[in-house]
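=== How it folds ===
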Amino acid sequence: MSEKPLLVVRPSRDQDAFLNLLDRAAVPYRHIPIMEIQPVAKEGGEYPMVADLIDRLDQFDQGIFISANAAEMGLPMIAEHWPKLPESIEFFAVGPQTAQLFTEYGYPVCCPTLIPNTEGLLEELPQLQHLEGQSVIIFRGGQGRQTLGDELIKRGASVVYCELYQRLIQMEKLTEAQASIATAGCLVVHSGELLQALDIPSDKHIPLVVPSARIAQLAQQLGYQQIQIAENALPVSMFDAVMKLRGGEENLGDAQ
């Protein structure tokens, strides 16, 4: 792959482990965050519903955090409302990066280790296989995928969503990113929603890194022709996929 900079379009984070790995490896990149993560505001109309669900946390058997953003926003609210965590609830995280955020609060949490995503939650964890009569609360951003909730319902659970944030496409940044594809050596996209926002590529031959076969299939439908699938969406896995495209292998360890 050429030494043209990567183009990364994921939302901004205070500590972005993926970008840190690129910095450490001296890989040139441009980060144009085309999506903003906007927490539910206390003065907003959705907040009373969120607060009510957290007040009723002791009525749920399982609480599932579908992203690091959900944990970053939901766990402080839980700690504020529940000085002592209800004994009735068991927490689950979509992967180790999200699970790591629970350590600050001392909350026990389970997560998939082989497949750190929604599919891993459904396949790996025995506690989520048979859920007759169980009540599940899923902490996530608004308008997220329904795959997890739909499957849990099939397994017998009643499911409630706690919508902690919205994902908003920033049109000015989107236009900038679309224009930058022409000068990028590789495009790195962490979600199907980001890929769909970018729309049909102006350069179908630009190398593309994605975190799953599901998103790769979407990329093929949009016309991308050179797609590198990472093992998962964890920072080190996405970094390794970038390095494969660059013609080298590099492993900097488990950078969560």
Q: What stands out?
A: The chain has ten helices and ten strands. Strands lie at 6-8, 29-31, 35-39, 62-65, 90-93, 135-141, 158-169, 186-188, 208-210, 227-229. The chain has a mean pLDDT of 92. Residues 72 and 101 are 7 Å apart (CA to CA).
